[in-house]
Amino acid sequence: MALSDKHSRESLIPSFLYSSSSSTKTLALEKMLHARPSGFTSNVNVEGASARKGLVIPSPSEPSKKIEMYSPSFYAACTFGGILSCGLTHMAVTPLDLVKCNMQIDPAKYKSISSGFGVLLKEQGAKGFFRGWVPTFLGYSAQGACKFGFYEFFKKYYADLAGPEFSAKYKTLIYLAGSASAEVIADVALCPFEAVKVRVQTQPGFARGLSDGLPKFIKSEGALGLYKGIVPLWGRQIPYTMMKFASFEAIVEMLYKYAIPRPKDQCSKSLQLGVSFAGGYVAGVFCAIVSHPADNLVSFLNNAKGATVGDAVKKIGLVGLFTRGLPLRIVMIGTLTGAQWGIYDAFKVFVGLPTTGGAPPPVAAATELAKV
């Protein structure tokens, strides 16, 4: 048995290695190193050897793995992109939001945008412009995560329910339904932070921020008081988001169809991101106009303890609901929405996903393949 094993081992080793002649060893080794049998293909042999050893070494030029569309990783990426797009942008425009809220609550004191900034600077200093930034950042990060993540989910879900023909024919309804469904969930996440934010920003001395403002608010209004403004918030945010997503999709589709002379997939990524920002800015103007009356109601209700919608309408007036603070909100929301779509799509490009818009709603690929 030992002899057989020894013979087997030696048979696997080239004979020149255990040859007694040193010159034979050298000559044979040189032949082996320089020989190149006909039909030799290095890639095939290397790949074959790697496969036999269970090891595959990718080429340096091989592209990295892409995220599969509509997979859990896809929705996770969209959710994180929503956090970045909404949290960062809302925090950045905190000074504008602060002036806007005070103009809505006390128009006699905060008569215009310029005078509003002047009053805040005089009374609270430069630091006062970012009062309430923590609940703003956390609240709108939570809202953005739900808004964008669930929008992508519901858009696909409703498109699959409708089928390829109806989803293409009634694509705007798909966008409206998907965005409305997503915003219902997103506002539940936002509402407590929004309540504290408005109280901190419009009542000087109430609290420094979220850490001390949240306990004070709960002590004063109760835990359910954090959701006192949920209905007006839905009234503001659902039409806003429906307009934001549906108009964005329509504007981007028209830009690729009429303003850009080549298909979207042939455009550079920088051009696609420019289209996303432009479409988002125009959509933001429409959003501000549609949702402004409810925005006035939210600010009034969260500022006044025990106030009702009737009280708000009586004090602000019907015309005031539509016009008070509107110019500033158009500037703020237009810029905000454009930046949000730009950041969101930039993150999607960063992780290897296509930008949003420019095509009909998605349908199940498996269904299409089954038909073929």
TrEMBL record:
- Report the transmembrane regions from the record: none
Named from the GO MF annotations, one term is: phosphate transmembrane transporter activity
Which compartments is it annotated to reside in? Mitochondrion inner membrane
Annotated InterPro entries = MCP_dom_sf (IPR023395), MCP_transmembrane (IPR018108), SLC25A3/Pic2/Mir1-like (IPR044677)
Q: Which family does it belong to?
A: Belongs to the mitochondrial carrier (TC 2.A.29) family.
> Mind telling me which PANTHER family this protein's record contains?
SOLUTE CARRIER FAMILY 25 (MITOCHONDRIAL CARRIER PHOSPHATE CARRIER), MEMBER 3, LIKE-RELATED-RELATED, SOLUTE CARRIER FAMILY 25 MEMBER 3
What name does the UniProt record give this protein?
A: Mitochondrial phosphate carrier protein 3, mitochondrial
List the source organism: Prunus avium (Cherry)
Q: Upper taxonomic classification of the species? A: Eukaryota, Viridiplantae, Streptophyta, Embryophyta, Tracheophyta
Query: Which gene underlies this protein?
Result: LOC110764361
